[in-house]
Specification:
By secondary structure, this protein is an alpha+beta fold. The chain folds into two domains: about 15-180, Cathepsin B, Chain A (Alpha-Beta Complex), CATH 3.90.70.10; about 195-285, TolA/TonB C-terminal domain (2-Layer Sandwich), CATH 3.30.2420. The protein has helices spanning about 50-60, 70-75, 85-95, 110-120, 175-180, 250-260; strands at about 15-20, 30-35, 100-105, 125-130, 135-145, 155-160, 170, 195-200, 205, 220-225, 230-240, 265, 265-270, 270-275, 275-285. Strands 1, 2, 3, 4, 5, 6 and 7 form a seven-stranded antiparallel sheet that branches. Strand 5 and strand 6 form a beta hairpin.
Length: about 300
């Protein structure tokens, strides 16, 4: 999902977004909650984290299964992803929840923001959290929380249905805070009509003992900076599969080498090539295996 979320204000304050229903505050104390939201992975070789998240919410509401493509078509998805408004509208259209809204927060009101997440979960209503600086979406399926000294509520940990990786992905409180509210300066994300396009890309080949079961390669999600010359000049791993035989250092080294061979047609803004942040996925294949298909450039 691209950062087309209206998430950066003119004053440079980073806003984070979630999709929640309108609820009154009535919080239980010290629970460990799992809502039981049915998990669905995003469609193979797609960037449809938003439609997958809406589908999970729909199934939780007891409605029939529909295709993620149907939801994506309603949302107006394209190679740049969709907006948070489109996700909100899809929740209100495809589920029994008709009062979902975008919860935007600046960098001074995190406690209230997380309290509203917890209020929704405590009321047994899902939350779609748009994370990693607006690059990805998934469903909060539960967690555990406590009351703060200020009278609000804070997570101890979170269960997150990540359409790209797994159901009930465990997030510590600190990791969840960092994921929702990334530290550091606010980047500028490409919002124009011409995102980068691939001229050459490769799978990430690692010395794995065997191919993934089920024939579906695991994916690594990367936030990259694509220069005005069409090269990946920076990269940060946002999501990675569990690969016990590969250490983080080896994974990062192989990733840097692989991304260094990528070539892209650069993004253009007002007909000029510009450097942008760009979210992309790489298939993980055993070294020496047959060439696999290329996943979409967006989750």
């Amino acid at each position: 999902m691209r950062q087309t979320l209206g998430a950066i204000s003119k004053t440079g304050i980073l806003f984070v977004v979630l999709i929640v229903p309108s609820l009154a505050c009535n919080i239980s104390r010290n629970p460990d909650v799992k809502l039981g939201v049915p998990y669905r992975a995003q469609a193979p070789s797609s960037f449809d984290c938003g439609p997958a998240s809406v589908l999970m919410w729909r199934l939780y509401d007891g409605l029939s299964e529909i295709s993620q493509q149907t939801i994506a078509n309603f949302m107006g998805g394209a190679s740049c992803g969709v907006t948070s408004e489109a996700i909100r509208d899809a929740v209100n259209h495809f589920t029994y929840t008709h009062d979902a809204f975008r919860d935007l927060v600046g960098d001074v009101e995190y406690e209230g923001f997380f309290s509203r997440q917890i209020t929704s979960i405590d009321s047994r209503v899902p939350v779609i959290a748009i994370i990693d600086g607006g690059l990805h979406a998934g469903v909060v399926n539960g967690g555990k929380w406590h009351e703060t000294s200020g009278g609000g509520y804070q997570w101890d940990y979170v269960y997150f249905h990540d359409p790209l990786t797994r159901a009930n992905d465990y997030y510590s409180a600190d990791f969840w805070t960092d994921t929702n509210c990334p530290p550091g300066s606010t980047p500028i994300y490409h919002q124009g009509p011409e995102p980068p396009t691939f001229l050459h890309r490769e799978a990430l080949r690692l010395p794995l003992k065997q191919e993934a079961p089920g024939g579906r390669p695991p994916l690594v999600l990367v936030q990259a900076v694509v220069s005005a010359e069409g090269r990946v000049v920076q990269a940060r791993i946002l999501r990675k599969p569990r690969l016990p035989e590969i250490g983080d250092t080896d994974l990062e080294r192989c990733l840097v080498e692989t991304l260094g061979r990528f070539r892209l047609k650069p993004a253009r803004l007002h007909a000029e090539a510009v450097a942008v942040y760009f979210n992309l996925t790489l298939e993980v294949l055993p070294a020496g295996s047959a060439e696999g298909g290329s996943p979409s450039d967006l989750p």
